[in-house]
Amino acid sequence: MLALAGIAIAFFALPLVGLLWRAPWSNAWGYLTDHDALTALRLSIVCSLWATALSVVFGVPLAWVLARVEFPGRTVVRALCTLSMVLPPVVGGVALFFALGRRGLVGQYLDRWFDIRLPFTTAGVVVAQTFVAMPFLVITVEAALRQLDQRVEDAARTLGASRWYTFRRVTLPAVRPALVAGAVLSWARALGEFGATITFAGNFPGTTQTMPLAVYLSLETNPEEAIVLALVLIAISFAVLVGLRDRWFGARTAVAA
Known about the structure:
Order of helices and strands: HHHHHHHHHHHHH
Radius of gyration: 21 Å
Number of domains: 1
Number of helices: 13
Strand content: under 5%
Number of strands: 0
Oligomer: single chain
Low-confidence stretches: 250-257
Distance between the termini: 31 Å
CATH superfamily: MetI-like
Largest sheet: none
Helix content: over 70%
């Protein structure tokens, strides 16, 4: 078992070691402070934070409905709302385009009635990132809600508390660790999103070119810069996972208790 586990660890570690081995450390600072790289990083951070905020605003109520409300077809709805986790990102981008594009199912009305065009805009980046990131928050918060003892909520409502007051003052504090974990995971997923973004929003420097897209472009023109930018994204994602690992599972245990 230990030998097989060691092989698995090496399988995941070798790509990172390969990048570190080939990284142009003498020129790394110059690549990191390049104007285009900084612009892409700023855009990635801003858009991913907006995507995380939207994921929290809409994902928490969705998780509550999936965990607390019995209705026909709930399993189908849950599968639909988490489909983007396993859907190829490019396919997700195509689906978004035909739904929210200027001639899309809903996009045509956004364009005609409100003069709103999402494809190939910064707002389109946020939409694409939210589409792939929100399920991470939904499944994390839903799991915590399912493990939470509902007798505490019932007791609060018995004492006259409204459903909203109970949710805000009892339920949310109880699942806060899972909510934080889900939000950070959503942010990390949004930060690294590539396929849906380039398909739905394009790759325009300063407008839709996020860090993953900058890495892809640099790989064709300047592989050394691509390696440096890729290592930045890896470092951020790795730090998030290391920081959340114990807290995530510890929080779920605490909620269950």
